[in-house]
Amino acid sequence: MVLFRRSLGDILRSRRTDLGLTLREVSGAARVSLGYISEIERGQKEASSELLASLCDALEMPLSDVLREVADAVALEEAALVAAAPTPIAPRRAPVVAASAA
Amino acid sequence: MVLFRRSLGDILRSRRTDLGLTLREVSGAARVSLGYISEIERGQKEASSELLASLCDALEMPLSDVLREVADAVALEEAALVAAAPTPIAPRRAPVVAASAA
Where in this chain does the record put each HTH cro/C1-type domain (chains A, B) (predicted)? Predict the structure, then answer.
C-alpha cells in the first residue's frame, strides 16, 4: 500500500536539507515541536492540514509544489508495485472432451 | 491559509459523483463509516494515509492522480490568495533636507 505520509515526509525532509536548515530551525519557524516534525519526516505521523501549511511556509515552498512532488514520488511507487506484482496466468481452457456414447 | 483536507475532500467527492456512487457504496467498498467519509468530503476531518489509500481503491483512482488534482486545485487557491492580497506600497523616500548652518 502506498502511503501518503511516507512520500510527504521524504519530500519535506529533502526540501529542508536542500535549504540547509536544521530540524530545530524549522521547528522554530513553523512553531511545531522538533520531535513531531522529525516523526512527520520519517512518515510515522500524519500532519494535519494546518501543520502542513505551517511547514510549507517555514520551508518557503507552496503547498501545491509539495503535493506535486509527492504525487510524482507516489506515481513511481505505484509503478514499482505494478511491476513487482506477479503476472496473472491466463486460465487454461478446459480440454475439450469428445462426447462419447458409451 | 490553503488547507489540504478541503481540496482533497472536493476531489474525492467529485470523483465519487462522477462514478455515480453513493456515500453508502463507497463506505462499503472502503470499509469506512459513511459519516466519516462524508466529513472527509466536506473537508472537516483529516483522512489518515491508510484511509486515503482505501478511498482511492474504492474510487478506482490512483493516489498519484488524486494528489495531482489536489495540487492543481491548491495552486488555483494559492494564486487567488496572491491576487487578493493588498499591493504593498513602496515606502516614500524621506525628503532631502538641505543642511543649513544656522
Answer: 12-66
